[in-house]
Amino acid sequence: MSPEDAALLAAVCEGSERAFNELVDRHQQAVRQFVRRVVGPDDADDVAQETFLAAWSQARSFRGGSTVRSWLFGIAWRKAKDLQRVGLRRGRRDTAWLAEANVSAQADIGATEYALAQALSTLSIDQRAALMLCLAYGMTNEEAAEALHMPLGTVKSHVLRGRERLRDVLGDET
Question: pLDDT confidence of 66, banded at 50, 70, 90?
Answer without folding.
Answer: confident
